[in-house]
Amino acid sequence: MTMDPRFLAFLSIAVGLGATSLGCGASSADGGYGGATDGLSDSGNGGPGDGGADDGNGGTDGEPPPEMEDEGDFRVPRASGRFVYSASETTDSVAVIDSVTLAIDVVGVGRGPTVVAPLSTEGFVAVLDQGSNDVAMLRTDDQGRTTVSIIHASPGANNLAVAPDGALLYVYHDVDGPEQQGPGSDQELTVIDVTTSEAFEMTVGAHPRDVVFDATGSVAYVITDDGVNVVPSADLAMIGKPDLIPVVDDPAIDPSTLEIQVAADQGTALARVAGDARLFATNLASGERFAYTLPGPSTDLDVSEDGTFAIVTLPSIAGSRFVEVTLPVSPGQTPVVHDVAGEYVGLARLSPDGETMLLYTTVDPFMAAPFRPGPAYAGEFEPFAATGTGTGTGGSSSGGEASTSGTTGGSEGGDDGPGSVPPDQDPRQRITIARRGDGSWSERITLFVDHPIVSVGMAPDGANAMLLHAADPEQSSTPWSYTLLDLSKQFPVKKLQMVETQPRSVLFTADSDRAVVLLRDDAAGVRRVDLIDLRSFIVDGLGLGSPPEGAGYVEATQKIFVSQEHPTGRITFLDRDGNVETVTGYRLNDAVKD
Amino acid sequence: MTYRNLLLPSLVLAQALTACAPPDPYAEAPNILPPVGTRASLTYVDRDEHELLFVLPEDERIRLVRRRLGDDRTTVLWTRATIDRDRVMALVAPASDKTEDIDEQLYLFPASGDGDPRVYDVLAPFTGVALSPDGRRAVLHFADGVGTGALQNANQVAIVRLDSSEVRNLTLNGFGGRLRSIEFPTPPGVVGPTAVDVGGRPLELVAFLADGEVVLVDAGNEATDQVAVRFGAEVGFSPEATLLRAGNAVFGKPALFLRPSAGSDVAMLTLVDKSDEATGEAGFSTQVSLIPVGEHATDMSAYDSEETPYLVTVGGSAFVFTDIRTQQSFTVGTGSAVQKLFMRDAETAAGTIRQAVGWAPGGAALYALDLDDLEASIGRTPEALAIETGIQDLVVLDNDRVLVSSGINLYVVDLPRSQVTPLSAMTPYDARSSALEGNQLLLGTPGQTWVSTVDLLTLNPESMVLDDPITSFHYLPDAAKLVLVHGDPVGHLTVTDAASPSRSTSFVAWGYLVEGLLDP
Question: Which residues contact A68 (CB under 8 A, 6 or more apart)?
Answer without folding.
Answer: A6, A502, A504
